[in-house]
Specification:
alpha+beta; 5 helices; 19% strand
């Protein structure tokens, strides 16, 4: 005797499942990264924004701690930015409305203004 069970034989590809889980997170992070770049001078002030630009914000899902990657023009700019780390973190967290960013990593390279089209 077999009991009749209603089986739904709908199959989903791994790609479809992954997109449903990851896409909202990626979109949210992209929006945050764009907003940080767009309002960077207002967030940190003219002096710091002339020497740096936020490259990306990565938030660890396990502990909800973020790392802000900051691109600077030169080693001299990196040295000048380093003592302002806590100030930058406080201002970025105030802008985001939450204490998400815990660490700042400085990347040496050309600070170019990122526009909406080519921003990661």
């Amino acid at each position: 005797m077999h009991s009749k069970r209603s089986r739904n034989h709908s199959f989903f590809s791994i790609d479809e499942i992954a997109n449903k889980l990851i896409k909202p997170k990626i979109s949210k992070n992209k929006l945050i990264n764009r907003e940080l770049a767009k309002f960077w001078p207002e967030i940190v002030g003219k002096e710091i924004s002339n020497q740096s630009i936020p490259e990306k914000l990565v938030i660890n899902r396990r502990n909800n701690e973020g790392i802000l990657y900051l691109r600077v023009n030169s080693g001299a700019s990196a040295v000048l930015i380093q003592p302002c780390t806590n100030l930058i973190l406080d201002k970025v967290n105030a802008f985001l409305g939450k204490e998400k960013v815990k660490y700042l990593k400085v990347i040496l390279g050309n600070k170019t203004k990122l526009d909406e089209k080519n921003y990661p």
